[in-house]
Amino acid sequence: MKTFDHLSVIGLREWIALPELGMVGLRAKIDTGASTSTLHASDIVQFEKHGERWVRFTAHLGTLVQRRHRCEAQVVSVKTIKSSNGQAQTRYVIRTLLALGDRVWPIEFTLACRKTMRYRVLLGSKALVQAQLVVNPALTYVQEKPTISLLGAQ
After folding, report:
1. Which of 12, 48, 64, 144 has the highest count of CB atoms within 10 angstroms of its CB?
2. Considering the domain boundaries, does residue 34 fall inside one?
């Protein structure tokens, strides 16, 4: 069996932060079957800022206690995504910094309604490849929660 010492291990679920969106303490589920990561959002409104396309949306945090957070982000693209049940949906794609453990890097998120899902954030395979992360699905919350001091350093 090959081992890869230069790769960091994460579990099936991890604590993350999205510092550019002002969100800390999010639980994310790792979904290696999904290419792009997804963030639960509602009230999505497109607008123009400095001649570029942006979206304003409400991000929903937490599972038992719902918290809402208003966000704005530049639109990178619009994608048609086929969900696991085979339905196609058009979604806005944004790029923002993701903090997981002691790492911070930019990734793309599609914005979608995940109100019936247990996890409000899915991390897809592109985000894992960018950070050279390996998933051990037998583990959860392997990495420490991102700290405020780490986020302030970015």
Report:
1. 12
2. yes
Write down the pLDDT at residue 28.
Answer: 94
Q: How far is CA 141 from CA 18, 33, 57, 115, in A?
A: 17, 19, 28, 22
The stretch 123-152 carries a mean pLDDT of 85
Q: Kindly report each contact of residues 44-52 with a partner whose C-beta sits within 8 Å and lies 24 or more positions away, as own/partner.
A: 44/92, 44/111, 46/75, 46/92, 49/74
CB neighbour list of residue 115: distance below 8 Å, 6 or more residues apart? 40, 42, 60
Residue 152 lies in a domain: no
Question: Would you say residue 38 has pLDDT above 60?
Answer: yes
- Asked if the model's pLDDT at residue 82 lies above 90, the reply is no
Is residue 18 packed enough to be buried (19+ CB in 10 Å), middle (13-18) or exposed (0-12)? Answer: buried
Q: Hunting for tokens 């806005």 — which residue is that? A: 92
User: The whole model's pTM is what?
Assistant: 0.85
Q: Which residues constitute the domain of residue 16? A: 8-143
The enclosing domain of 91 has a CATH number of 2.40.70.10
Give the model's pLDDT for residue 128. Answer: 94
Positive or negative, the Cα torsion across 125, 99, 88, 72? Answer: negative
CA 70 to chain centre: 16
Would residue 22 count as lying in a domain? Answer: yes
